[in-house]
Amino acid sequence: MTVAAQLSAVLSQPLEQNTSLAPYTTLKVGGVARYLVTVNSEQELADVAHVITAENLPWCVLGRGSNTLVSDDGFNGVVLVLGRGFRGIEQTGQSVRVGAAEPLPTLASALADAGLDGFSWGCAVPGTVGGAVRMNAGAHGRDMADNLIEVDVYRLAVKARETWPKDALGLAYRRSELPRDAIVLSATFRFANGDPSVLRDEVAQIRQWRRDHQPLNQPNCGSVFANPTSVEPAAALIDRCGLKGFTVGGASVSTTHANFIVTTTGATARDVAAVIDAVKQAVHATTGVMLREEVVMLAGPVIPRETASKDDA
User: Fold this and answer.
1) For 83-126, how does the pLDDT look when each residue is reduced to its tens digit (9 = 90+)?
2) Which of 120, 223, 252, 254 is flagged as catalytic?
3) Catalytic member of 102, 202, 293, 294
4) What is the extent of the structural domain holding 41?
5) Which of 34, 64, 87, 174 is catalytic?
């Protein structure tokens, strides 16, 4: 039985093959996935994991693609997307368990409505809970570690479900020590009580700040670089180097916010990567600071052109 047939047999949604990943990212660039798999239950994830390990296939997880740069060469393996079965918000008093596929802006609004304080910043991050846990996402001086209690993960390498307390995650500024094969299924948080009307206003103010200070009307991946410690923010360093508007092909440093790269029609991942590299080198040469990317580079075995053009079913 072919890989495509094996995957199709265990999925509730149709298997996608040789599918462009550009629409699945906020930068809107990148190549194709050999297999794009949407799973809607832990059983489906376990069944797909069995195929991946049995066939020794490269694999990765893709959330909302808000901090992801997909290689133009594509990904010759399985790209896993957690579907609607991994969404949901369950509140018990001040504790909240959230599915990994839940968008952070949706969660921020729901918590504000419930009068739970501490997550208004989440409305500014267009990612999912799972990806946000893995990179300890944050904004406006807060991050996931502030309220996180524990996470449930599926270890693909050993095909087992595990629960990890926050202290075991190695959370630091925009990073964690979760093993590569640990796929976040859900996360549990604890929040303080607050006034829903005050929290709704706070969410509205943060959303307005984003509209005023970030290029939301252009494809982008959010903040490209982590802010260095004990020095100016990355945007200030980039701006000081006169790099706003710097362009390679269809990718440019935003003129609205220097820590954003925006793309236009016809842009490629190579254009974005070239801008990232040029900015890093210029900032280092001018300030002595070597910036670290927040954006994740998704690359893998290249899909041969003849394979990408035919069906494997």
Assistant:
1) 999 999 999 999 999 999 999 999 999 999 999 999 999 998 99
2) 223
3) 294
4) 7-84
5) 174
Low-confidence residues of the chain, pLDDT below 50? 309
Same domain flag for 22 and 76? yes
Structural domain contains residue 217? no
Q: Is residue 166 part of a domain?
A: yes
To the query of whether residue 294 is one of the catalytic residues in this protein, the response is yes
Q: Is 306 a catalytic residue?
A: no
Do 76 and 92 belong to one domain?
no
Whether residue 182 is found in the same domain as residue 243: no
Number of domains in the chain: 3
Torsion, Cα 150 155 156 160, to 10 degrees, reads: -120
Return the H-helix or E-strand segment holding 56: none
CB 60 within 8 A of CB 258: no
Let me know if 55 is a catalytic residue. no
For residues 118 and 24, give the distance between their C-alpha atoms in angstroms, rounded to a whole number.
29
Longest dimension (CA), the chain: 59
Do 94 and 187 have their domain in common? yes
